[in-house]
Amino acid sequence: SADVEGLTQSRFGSSTSTLEVSPATIQLEASAADAQSITLTASGAWTTTTEGSGFTVSPESGTGNATVTVTATAASGASGKIIFALTGTALTKEVTISQKGDSPTPTSNNLFPGSDFEDWTAFTGGLKPNLGLKDYAVQVDGGRNNSKALTIKGTPGANDYVFTATVPEGFSAEGKTKVVFYIKGTGGKSLSLNLYSDEISGKYQAYIPFNLGDCVTDKELSKSSSNQYGGAINTENDWVKITLNIPEDFNIAVKGGNDLFGFKVGKDAAYDLLVDDITLE
């Protein structure tokens, strides 16, 4: 069907571009001013951005290989991540930061790998193989908090699955009650989102759809009976929060490789939309 066309490969600059970091995780000691090092290998200029709190990074940018120092600002509470980006390319690497003595807390509640669209390889690598990603959906700058985002820009000729993300290994939805994501921009029609379970309905996985309808500000959605694309989107250049409330009697898919989350658009309508930070909460 027209809903399952195409697979677009992402491109990451020249084959000579290199960005590597080691280690990928750092646990600071439970003391203020504890410092640990990250070894950075880069083929050009690079920058860092941080998420979280309780630590500093030095230097924050540079050119070529470097040693980057992470320093705790207190005896507890350091948590987050450092995102390294190679200038002029889409290459990024992340280092997760935690601190001894803290209660373990997740540093990310992404619904699926790459669902904040920072690690494009992780995102595209977790999509349903026979659907892939539509060619009008690409990674861009301009996400929330100066991050990356997914842009949907074009006029789809069908009620397309822009993408369908699959369940990663080790996934758990225990205690979670909602899926949250953010959008910014316009759409001549609206969005329809599928959340899948591991149950089989006929030949296919069972799912529940959520239909956005008209959207100008933050919105909470309950499940619908079918996919619908009526309504229009105009966030007036603001980020708006979309919440999908998961029914208590619905069990999200947890079997690795099964469908998890489908993102759909309506046909014959222009979209100029940014999507960011799809999380499970």
Give unreliable regions as ranges: 1-14, 102-107
The CATH class of the largest domain turns out to be Mainly Beta
Q: If you compute it from the alpha carbons, what radius of gyration comes out, rounded to the nearest whole angstrom?
A: 20 Å
Distance between the termini: 33 Å
Can you write the helix and strand succession as a string? EEEEEEEEEHEEEEEEEEEEE
* CATH topology tier name of the largest domain: Jelly Rolls
Mean pLDDT: 91
Percentage of residues in helical conformation:
under 10%
Based on the coordinates given, report the CATH architecture of the largest domain.
Sandwich
Characterize the overall form: globular
Using DSSP, what is the number of strands?
20
Structural class: mainly beta
Question: Largest sheet at a glance?
Answer: 7 strands, mixed
The overall number of domains is: 2
Q: Count of DSSP helices? A: 1
Estimate what percentage of residues fall within beta strands.
over 45%
Pick out its properties:
Jelly Rolls, Immunoglobulin-like, single chain, disordered N terminus, 2 domains, five-stranded mixed beta sheet, mainly beta, 281 residues, 1 helix
Structural notes for this entry:
The chain contains one helix and 20 strands. With 281 residues, it is mainly β. The chain has two domains: 81 residues, Immunoglobulin-like; 170 residues, Jelly Rolls (Sandwich), CATH 2.60.120. The strands form four sheets. Strands 10, 11, 13, 16, 17, 18 and 20 form a seven-stranded mixed beta sheet that branches. A five-stranded mixed beta sheet has the order 2-9-8-4-6, with no helix packed on it. The N terminus is likely disordered.
